[in-house]
Amino acid sequence: xxxxxxxxxxxxxxxxxxxxxxxxxxxxxxxxxxxxxxxxxxxxxxxxxxxxxxxxxxxxxxxxxxxxxxxxxxxxxxxxxxxxxxxxxxxxxxxxxxxxxxxxxxxxxxxxxxxxxxxxxxxxxxxxxxxxxxxxxxxxxxxxxxxxxxxxxxxxxxxxxxxxxxxxxxxxxxxxxxxxxxxxxxxxxxxxxxxxxxxxxxxxxxxxxxxxxxxxxxxxxxxxxxxxxxxxxxxxxxxxxxxxxxxxxxxxxxxxxxxxxxxxxxxxxxxxxxxxxxxxxxxxxxxxxxxxxxxxxxxxxxxxxxxxxxxxxxxxxxxxxxxxxxxxxxxxxxxxxxxxxxxxxxxxxxxxxxxxxxxxxxxxxxxxxxxxxxxxxxxxxxxxxxxxxxxxxxxxxxxxxxxxxxxxxxxxxxxxxxxxxxxxxxxxxxxxxxxxxxxxxxxxxxxxxxxxxxxxxxxxxxxxxxxxxxxxxxxxxxxxxxxxxxxxxxxxxxxxxxxxxxxxxxxxxxxxxxxxxxxxxxxxxxxxxxxxxxxxxxxxxxxxxxxxxxxxxxxxxxxxxxxxxxxxxxxxxxxxxxxxxxxxxxxxxxxxxxxxxxxxxxxxxxxx
Length: 608
Ligand code: GDP
Known about the structure:
about 30% helix
């Protein structure tokens, strides 16, 4: 029963590094994990690979066996006791393995499909790795799909490549170069692993196949090599507990439980622990420390083994009272005999409080909701980079009250009446309320997709405003009438455009001086509803183009040529403060310099 507890114990008090697998969907993360987990029949369970909670533990003996083909004379010396690989690949696990802004994931494998190159989640993973300063290697997976590839199961990559035809070798080279270029465009220098002279300066690319197992020995050796070169110092075993909650799950017979990765220290049954919950800190006592029962013991009643204590690094399920509302990504701390419980509560709560307080002081911005502390942090970091302001932040499923809070934006800044929901469920009632109120809810499990949705939404809002403002957008022009075909209702006249451009829908006015009162009079004629030349409708007539016949219509009493107007009166587009603002906001690039000048000239005419 103590196997799991002892599994990660180190010889020289170095603890096992924790490794995450990241990458785009379908690149083969799960398959790679399965492949490295496969225990050779001869090794049996004595190979020591142990299934833990949320992670698999590989003792150094198992890794030695798996890398033997590429470590012929044992020239590579293994110094760590083993490797703890997180079982759920992807960035949720990675971003939840956090403690005070730094990562508990010591090392990562970024999986790239050699046939596809860098994809959206690859870039997202790279951003996370860079932000958290986590060393990583790249598995260029699916090499068996290179056309004509001849496989040798579980072979070292260099040996396998040497056996391939020239054509395959060339295709490999081309794809490798393309990948290196793509990495450099993202600011990472990369090298094929056996040509890499400095793991500190270059990311190592290791070609693999999760199907044939080729390159996997190289990948395992490389991940330990990188660990030993880059971080042995930080892998010293510490007695202080360092742990993080990866998942919160209800389990039959145990109630609510938390799956925890313990990266340092010891946890014991009965320990008083503190972690972050949606309603503040949760303080409770460990009722049971559970690890999976080995296969041969599965006939026993429980799928779990109870442990009196467990030592880092490992994954363990904790059963304890009061775990409802626990948040994944939370730190887990142990209250020692000399500790002040309240201080620890404050500290744990501050993780959530810090994130919740990352809102615009102006109060104008989108609402953000995420499932875990890790994903919330990643999302907020990303939105900050994109300069998208955030006004509300929440964790867990979206309920009506969250949508209502977002709805405040409908009045303040309607564009931001948007909820960006990352990997969370939206309650039915909340959804209905949002639809009713015109609040947009975007859901995604890739951060980039939320960004794309939001950008598209902003473009649509702009388009809509532009549409709505069409009647308000008045392009400036001056018209000289050359004939009157119909005096009124509707007015039909022939005109030359002497300045600017005349567009359909433009409101037209004459400006005259009343001879009796000697005051200026603005006579509105209505809007242009038709522009015709040679019996053809045209949408616009520009300065200097041949004369056009125009129809001007107006609801109500239209002025009459011969009574209120003379043919000799110049006509103008009737501009206003609002029309100028509309042009500035939506049509700036459609208005020429000359036209801005004309607007300035027309302003005093209309008393602007
Ligand atoms: P994940 O989404 O990254 O976990 O990807 P999976 O491990 O589920 O793999 C996605 C698909 O790619 C599955 O159909 C796998 O069988 C396939 N696949 C994964 N690795 C390889 C590989 O090395 N070679 C080939 N040919 N297919 C692979």
